[in-house]
Amino acid sequence: MSAHVAPARRRGLADEVADRIRDAIFDGGYAPGSQLREVELAGALGVSRGPVREALLKLEREGLVRGEWHRGTTVTALSEVDVAELDSLRAALEQLAVTLVVDRAPDLAEIDAVVARMDRAADEHEMVRCDLAFHDAVYAAAGHHRLREAWEAIRSQVHLFLLTRIGLESEGYLAGIPAEHRELAEALRAGDRDAALELFAVHRRRASEVLRGSEH
């Protein structure tokens, strides 16, 4: 006797709507704390409210938006607890990724390609995307499928974290980030695990200190 399963649903439209809303947030169209109204989004995207509602639920699972009965759906504004938890979880994942990359000594061509793109970034939002792409490449080079999935689970929140960081302080960001990541790539290539772990920790700490400093 075969198990009863519900009919499959097509979710392509909701996924596309989620992509559009996510891109708008990451491009700075909706700042942290901004309200996202289903009716307005449906009108702007030319779809019914159903796919928008599904899309917002997907983005809520990513931690990118928050739904509250008295406020509706808003772009997540990171609290002090959010920043601390993201930082500690990212540290744990990144320590394993860096260790694996140093031990495996894989081809770092994709990491180098991202660093080269950073030199051509036109604005802070493009630089943030390059920053995330750099870390994507590090996790890919680690060769650990479940570790990469764990990174993907928090990636949108880290993107929001970096957007919040440049919203608070962007002076020197465009000029300094390429050199900082070039140093990280060189540390991976040199094969010195302790030095690489320390440089990645310093890299994370610089961004976290901007956000934590704004709370005092």
The gross shape turns out to be elongated
Helix coverage percent? over 70%
Rg computed from alpha carbons, rounded to a whole number of angstroms: 19 Å
Beta-strand percentage range: under 5%
> What is the tally of helical segments?
9
Total DSSP E strands? 3
What is the mean pLDDT? 90
* Structural class label: mainly alpha
- Strand-and-helix sequence, N→C? HEHHEEHHHHHH
Going across the biggest sheet, name each strand in turn.
Answer: 1-3-2
Would you mind describing this structure in some detail?
By secondary structure, the protein is mostly helical. Helices cover about 70% and strands about 5% of the residues. The protein has 9 helices and 3 strands, in the order αβααββαααααα. The chain has helices spanning about 10-25, 40-45, 50-60, 80-105, 110-120, 125-140, 145-170, 175-190, 195-215; strands at about 35, 65-70, 70-75. It has a 3-stranded antiparallel beta sheet. Helix 2 (about 40-45) packs across helix 3 (about 50-60) and helix 8 runs antiparallel to helix 9 (about 195-215). The protein is elongated and about 55 Å long. The model has no long low-confidence stretch (mean pLDDT about 90). It comes from Amycolatopsis bullii.
